[in-house]
Amino acid sequence: MSLKLHYEILGRGEPLIILHGLFGSSANWRSIAAGLANPEHPQHGRWQVVLPDLRNHGASPHSPTHHYTDMVGDVLGLMDTLKLERAHILGHSLGGKAAMLLASRAAERVQSLTVVDIAPRAYAPLHHEFFAAMNALPLHGLRSRMEASAWMSRRLPNPEVRDFLLTNLVRERSGQLHWRINLPTLEMAYDDLNAMPFLDRLYAGPALFIRGGHSDYVRDADLGLIRESFPQACVISLPLAHHWPHIETPDAFLKALRSFLHTQREHLPCEI
Predict the structure, then answer these.
(1) Which residue among 20, 66, 88, 243 is the active-site one?
(2) What topology is assigned to 7-121+196-263 in CATH?
(3) Average pLDDT, stretch 134-154?
(4) Is 93 a catalytic residue?
(5) What residue ranges do the domains of the chain occupy?
(6) Catalytic residue among 25, 26, 60, 93
(7) Is 243 a catalytic residue?
């Protein structure tokens, strides 16, 4: 059964739905959404950007399941609620895999597909230490995110990683801190999320894969896999970015995305 996702809408124009990654939320994409909703150059078009929180993330409902088919059903339900017959779909990382499955199963609802720094393949588990650090955090004894960050630094020395995870730490009305994401369900589903869901059919529509030049999530060896399931795909590398090109190199990211959305890849450089 699909869930009614929490979402925000910015701008007016052609609908674009952005699906965030694991441990993320719609807030991660607000600056990109603002750039698309109010472009500096009107010839690039204006977009109605829909930013949902995926199930078990952000302000969306929790559920005991978190499969890719669940996420696809949730997004299609959101499109029905918003009366969107078709939309441009963009997904990053976990959201990118969900976007690929959506395009495969409901191509008639997808105007175009953009996938950010993820390939259509299985991945080794890379986040067990994140789950361990978050589960071990003594929430009842903490007064602030700063204290939480200091405590988590014992397990996670990278401050940027801690800051990202701690966006999920919120305060209840009672003053008690708690994790807003559904940690138990996400950890239980983690092995399945690392796998690649079976794609029912090719998506022959316009597709753009944006990868970080310093990221190993989309390798040269993955380009053939991309072409097999997305024969019209282009791949663009942003040389200064890692796994979060929309945050690390937002100007270059927006330039590539706007060009794709405006021209549907006709004038894009394409590595494939």
Answers:
(1) 243
(2) Rossmann fold (3.40.50)
(3) 91
(4) yes
(5) 7-121+196-263, 128-188
(6) 93
(7) yes
